[in-house]
Amino acid sequence: MSDPSPREGGPESAAGRFNTPGRFDTLCVHAGQSPEPVTGAITTPIFQTSTYVQEGIGRHRGYEYARLQNPTREASEANIAALEGGRHGIAFSSGLAAIECLAKAVAGGGHIVSEENTYGGTTRMFRQILARLGIKVTLVDARDPAAVEAAIRPQTRLIHLETPSNPLMRIADIETVGAVARRHGALLCVDSTFASPSNQRPLALGADVAMHSTTKYLSGHSDVLGGILVVDDDALADELHFVRKSTGPVPGPMDSWLTLRGTRTLHLRMERHNHNGMLVAEFLESHPAVRAVHYPGLPVHPQHDLARRQMTGFSGMLSAELSRADAERMVERTRLFRLAESLGGVESMISIPSVMTHASVPEEARLRMGITNGLVRFSVGIEDGRDLVEDLEQALRTLE
Questions:
Q1: 337: three-class secondary structure by DSSP
Q2: Contact by Cβ (8 Å): 289, 62
C-alpha cells in the first residue's frame, strides 16, 4: 500500500486545471481557493445571498441567482474536483440527491445496474422511486464483473458501484467494471464515500463519475448534509448542471463553506482514520465474541489484494458480526462510540444496520447479502486509538 501524500500535480492534473500546483495534501488546502479580491481574506467568504444585482438587462458579473451560481459552492466544487483528479465538481444538497440527478440525466426511461450492497437509502430510491420515472434497476453482487456484465441490457445507461460497500465492505474492481461499461456504452459511477479521495480516486481507475456523500469524510465534522459528483467529460457536466438547475437540489452556502473547511484537513484526518480503523479491526478480529470482521485492510478480507491495488488506505469504516443479543448489548454499552446512523466524522460512531441504516431493505435481501441482525457497523474516528480499543473492550467484557 502506497502513501497517499506523494501524488503529483503536474500540467495535466486537476491541480493544473484549477491553477493550483502541488501534491494531494497541498490540493486539500489550496485547490479552488484564492484570496478574496476586495479585502484579501484568506478564507473563502460565505456568500449568503439568494440573488445578485445585475448591471443592466442581460448584463451581469456571471452571477444571476443562487440556485444557478454561488461563489462559496463553486470553491468547494473546484476543491473536491481537484482532489478527485476531475475537471468538474457538481455539488448537491445530499448524496442521494447527487445519485438521483445522475440517474435523471443519463438513465431516464432506461436501465441501471447497481451493486446490491449499497446504503439502504440508495436501495430504497432505486427500488421505490426511480421505477416511477420509468428507470429500471437490476441489483447484483458487483464483486463479480461477470455478474455485472450479465445484467446489462440494450437499455442500460449506467452502472453504479459502491466500493467499499455499506456495510459489508465489499470491494468492486473499478478498472474491470469500467471496461465492461465502455464495451456496452454505459457510464460507470463509483460511490467512493467510504474511501474518500485520500484513499481512492475512481476516475483514475476508469470510472466516468466519482460520487460522494460530502456529509461524511469530506466534511468530516458531522455538521453538514451534502453530496457531489465529479466528472471529466464537459458534455456530461453540462447535462448534470442543467438537471440540477432545473430540479433545484443545491447545497446552501453555509454547508458549502463547512465542506470546504473540512476538505482542508482531509489528508490529516484520513491518516488517523486509517490508523485507527486498522487498530480496531485487528482488536475485533481477535475477540472471541466476534464471529467475523469485514475490513479490506485485513489480510483475511477475501478482496484484500484488490483493495491494496486500488486504494491507498482503508479508512475507519468496518463491520463485525456478533450474535444479535451481543450486538444489541454492545452498542448500548460503549462510552466513546456513539450510537448514530452517520459516519466519517471526527468522533467514533456505532450502529446496527439491520434496524438503522438498512431497515428499509427487505429482510430476505438483507440476510441473503449477509446483513444479519447481529452485524455491527463502526465508523472509527480520530480519537486516540488506544482509548477506542479500551472502550470496545469494556463493552464486550459485559457480554461474558
A1: coil
A2: no
Query: Strands 209-212 and 187-191: what pairing?
Result: parallel
Region of poorest pLDDT, from 2-16, 74-88, 113-127, 323-337: 2-16
**Exposure class string for 263-274: b at 16+ Cβ within 10 A, else e:** bbebbebbbbbb
Which single residue is written with the C-alpha cell 478527485?
84
**Which residues are the active-site residues?**
67, 119, 191, 216
Instruction: Tell me the helix, strand and coil percentages in the chain, rounded to 5.
Output: 40, 15, 45
Total count of residues recorded for the chain:
400
**Are 65 and 50 within 8 A, CB to CB?**
yes
CA 157 vs. chain centroid, Å, equals 21
**Cis peptide, bond prior to residue 167, ω within 30 of zero:** yes
Strands 111-115 and 136-140: parallel
H or E element at residue 317: strand 317-321
Per the confidence metrics, is the pTM higher than 0.70? yes
Architecture in CATH for domain 95-212: 3-Layer(aba) Sandwich (3.40)
DSSP 160-205: EEESS-TTT-----HHHHHHHHHHTT-EEEEE-TTT-TTT--GGGG
Residue 369 clears pLDDT 60, i.e. is over it: yes
Choices 3.40.640.10, 3.40.50.360, 3.40.47.10, 1.10.1040.10: CATH for 1-87+232-264: 3.40.640.10
